[in-house]
Amino acid sequence: MVVSQPAGLISVLLDRAARIDERDDAAMDLEAYSGEHVVKALVDVASSPVEDDLVVVSAAESLGRVLARDGGCLEDLLASLRPDAKRIAEEVLLSSRQVE
After folding, report:
1. What's the per-residue H, E or C state across 14-74?
2. Percent of the chain whose pLDDT exceeds 70
């Protein structure tokens, strides 16, 4: 499947009919991109109470990396995440700050 980036990755990530491994890969690959639409898609997944845990973890990790790189409204975004996703995103942010 060939799709444009990052729109194609977002489409796969948000497609609940897609295979979990495809959605997980899309979540991980989105960390390489910037933009409000990328952040929104990752937040949507990482805040969903019915989302697959594997996809949530990858979305939270990618969100943490995007926010660490690009900045943004951290408190508001993090507050909207599931508790497990919030913890993961905060850990990624913290570890990226220690590297700087």
Report:
1. HCCCCCHHHHHHHHHHHHHCCCHHHHHHHHHHHCCCCCCHHHHHHHHHHHHHHHHHHCCCH
2. 91
Joined together, the tokens standing for residue 100 give 């700087």
Amino acid letter, residue 67: L
pLDDT tens digits, one per residue of 37-49: 999 999 999 999 9
Q: In sequence order, what are the residues at sequence separation of 6 or more whose Cβ sits closer than 8 angstroms to the Cβ of residue 47?
A: 80, 81, 82, 85
pTM for this model (two decimals): 0.90
Radius of gyration (C-alpha) of the chain in whole angstroms: 12
Residue 14 burial class via C-beta count within 10 angstroms: exposed 0-12, middle 13-18, buried 19 and up: middle
